[in-house]
Amino acid sequence: MGVFSNKISREEVKTGDHIYTWRAVHTYAHHGIYVGDGKVVHFTSGRGPQTETRMLVSSSSTSYPLCLICKDHYSFEGFKVTSSCLDCFLAGGNLYLYQYNVSMRSFLAKPIGGTCTLEPSGPPEDVLFRANFQLQHLDGWFGDYHLQNNNCEDFAIYCKTGLLVYKKNKYGNSGQVNAVAAASAALVVNACGLTMVGVGVYCYARVRRDVSSKRMKGKVIEVSAKKLVSILESDCTSPREGWLSIAGSKFFGKQALGAPSGTESREAEHA
Predict the structure, then answer these.
(1) Residues 145-198: pLDDT tens digits?
(2) What sign does the CA torsion over 196, 202, 208, 211 have?
(3) pTM score over 0.85
(4) What is d(CA 92, CA 85) in angstroms, rounded to the nearest whole number?
(5) Distance between CA 57 and CA 151 in Å, rounded?
(6) Which residues form the catalytic set?
């Protein structure tokens, strides 16, 4: 793995790593958490009846033939957290390691977003606990998929850091999405003939939108592994209700119907 590339071999990947692979000739990347034994937990689309929306933003590679085991895991409609083997996750692509706690210099040296963050990762056991909590105790639920604020990279960053953007209609923690937004602002400046200023705007916007900056500004909440343990030990609430009471109203969507209305007060507490 070099300064400009996060590519690694299968022998280098470790349990609890945030990994990704590029799709459609580097158009976008798909992210997940490596949980050991050749398995990856990730937020993705199923291969049930296709809809126009799913085809436009799908993070699964519908052209890659799944193995017999993973084929059953992808039989659902819509989006959810699921487990697959590393081969089916990569879908013929290369394996890359998402880096955490990088220096500012290293962060800016990687011009493509969605490859690293300034924020440190939690310990591997916490990463695995958060990933398996969504997979096993919430039946793969991670709120409604949204390309800008709740995608596969948001899920992987949540597992690694415990941090969630809780407000609705806000960009999530996805470095790739935030880099696109930063590039849009830079292009406006470049159009005025101020190329170097445009580069500065891009770099500044990327840093400002990174999850570490959002944490310092109070724009995220932390879901610690200890909080998840307490949810499982509680006799007064279901795992989904308990998680929603922490995560906030952003995750109230079609799949969260029936959750207690009092949970929405969480957003007001952090406004």
Answers:
(1) 888 889 999 999 999 999 998 776 567 778 777 777 766 655 655 556 556 556
(2) negative
(3) no
(4) 12
(5) 9
(6) 30, 42, 152
